[in-house]
Amino acid sequence: NAGVTQTPKFRILKIGQSMTLQCAQDMNHNYMYWYRQDPGMGLKLIYYSVGAGITDKGEVPNGYNVSRSTTEDFPLRLELAAPSQTSVYFCASSRTGVSPLHFGNGTRLTVT
Amino acid sequence: AQKITQTQPGMFVQEKEAVTLDCTYDTSDPSYGLFWYKQPSSGEMIFLIYQGSYDQQNATEGRYSLNFQKARKSANLVISASQLGDSAMYFCAMREGPGGTSYGKLTFGQGTILTVHP
Asked: How far apart are the CA of B109 and the nearest CA of chain A, in angstroms?
């Protein structure tokens, strides 16, 4: 049982490049989330989804886009990467709106 | 205003002793949930314990307990009999509102780094 799988684990981008962070869960959870964690800080919500085809913005959505075409996958797209997007990105899922979140192991992204 | 406040950037505890990590929260919604997560140096986020706003009893999970004081809006994590493996960053988080409207979104505090000394 893999849980929440994120790829890649590490990535270095140049300013202005684009990339997609992949997230997949095998628990049939409807709710999925993307958070970012800046050094020494807590996590901040970027986007979330309550089911296939339904997404909404979180606290810090600027510079990112998401899609949810299936229950399992919730990719995060970075367009025109900026140094301010250097962070660790966590994907999470939950079974219901009151269940604990299950997190992936994170993607460490550096933009230089 | 901060929704979740963790005032202790770092805490130290001797192995086998108990330690309390502080968390205060701010919400006007009567329905909410409070979570604690552990983040070891390896980086993953591990769920520890949950307390619902309507729960009558303080939550406990093994060596973890949550000291929930609703009137003071505090939800402190108590770790009993600390072990070296407890050294990590600990985050308090809140779901504000019932699940049907909050959609499970969590707001996190800035974390407390706990170091357990042998």
From this structure: 6
pLDDT at B102: 84
Residue A106 has pLDDT above 70, yes or no: yes
- The secondary structure of chain A, three-state, reads CCCEEEECCEEEECCCCCEEEEEEECCCCCEEEEEEECCCCCEEEEEEEEECCEEEECCCCCCEEECCCCCCECCEEECCCCHHHCEEEEEEEECCCCCCCEECCCEEEEEC
Residues A86-102: tens digit of each pLDDT: 999 999 999 998 899 99
Mutate which of A25, A29, A98, A107 to disrupt the B interface (most B C-beta within 10 Å)? A98
SS3 B117: strand
Size of interface A-B (CB pairs under 8 A): 71
**Pairwise CA distance, residues A73 & B61, whole Å:** 31
Which residue positions in chain B have pLDDT lower than 50?
none
List the single best residue of B7, B45, B47, B107 to mutate versus A (max A Cβ within 10 A).
B45
In chain A, what residues touch B45 (CB-CB under 8 Å)? 43, 90, 92, 101, 103, 106
Q: What is the pLDDT of residue B1?
A: 63
Distance (Å, whole) CA A49 – CA A17: 25
Average pLDDT in chain A: 95
Query: What is the DSSP secondary structure assignment for residue B36, as one 8-state letter?
Result: E
The rounded mean pLDDT for chain B is 95
